[in-house]
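[SOLVED] Predicted holo structure with pyridoxal-5'-phosphate

Edit: marking solved, answer below. Original request kept for reference. I posted the sequence and ligand SMILES and asked for the 3D complex as structure tokens.
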Amino acid sequence: MPNRSNRALSPATKLAQALRYLEAETGAIVPPIQPTATYARDGEYNERKSYIYRRDSNQTTEHAEAIIADLEGAKDALLFASGMSACTAVIEHLPAHAHVVVPEVMYHGVLDQFTTFAAKDRLEVSYYAPADLDDMASKLRKGETALVWTESPNNPNWDVTDIAAAAEIAHAAGAKLFTDCTGTPPCATRALDFGADISFHSATKYLNGHSDVTAGVLSVRDTGAYWDQIAHVRKMQGTVLNTFDAYLLVRGMRTLVLRYERATENALAVAHHLEGHPGVEAVMYPGLPSHPGHEIAKRQTGGAYGGMLSIIVKGSEQTAIDVARFCEVFYPATSLGGVESLIEHRKTVSGDGFPVHPCLLRLSIGIEDAGDLIADLDQALERAGAVVG
Ligand SMILES: Cc1ncc(COP(=O)(O)O)c(C=O)c1O
């Protein structure tokens, strides 16, 4: 709908109104679901508006993509059936034996893909210590490295990478910078503004926010042949986000700003409470001034640090598992970014081969009452025997 005064609207307004959606014919203000799998050609046997088949794209998914592209300040965005299928499309589009530089600790599924592609001799992979830009720079090969992968904040230790500095390093070597900012959605961090070439979010998490959709989205500053190749992988593998999930995602994004602000507020309260708690060895949360990446996080999120934090529980691995088991408000489940708080023993989920502290619990803080969350953690730490003396 036209905005007569032409005043730029803030992201919160555009999201709440699904990009000022208004159906011209009926006046409906909620975007429709268009479930067709195929599209009839016109009387001249031409495609109408270039739609042919659902696997290429569909209108509901395109509406969700337009909302995200606008939020990211991107030239274009593509939605996939999961975060993993979006990441895999980027990996798949690279030429055989391409050299990539990736963090040695990151979301375990993506790390697994790199290890698998390297083992099949499909890619050459060099690993760097997360957020360590000197180590990253030392792994790049000028004119040869195709892609640098960053995840910030980095799952599950929540190290923070300086995206602008990483972009400089990647670009100086002629590589593209990929940034997974799943932990801080684009209402907090717009990775493209800091120089990333491809910004990625598992839309399963904050963007949807209700733990009822899996989706992944790539957004880019510049399109071109590489972007067409990524879209081609999506089409050929049939990993476009389906219509019904796109509808749910649009609905979820309408409350993104509110949900994310509340999750940040709650996470700050929980992190401050747990820092120095007698049952907790360490709290990893970029919103804490004691966190080594705090200043970078402040710059990259404007203080909207999000709801993700991890703690190292005092005691044994079993003590940590017991804390997760004994929670009564937190659900003992994997995933993140939903309205409900989750707690998980990360080593159980990511497996033995993944480098993670055995006593690490990952907390996804939701939008419940912060007092209820804190009381729940206190009783679980006490009951598990993490608090001694
Ligand atoms: C940082 C990060 N990247 C990628 C993914 C994969 O996304 P999905 O589960 O939507 O496939 C996840 C999932 O937890 C994640 O946390």
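OP edit: The chain has a mean pLDDT of 96. Thanks to everyone who chimed in.
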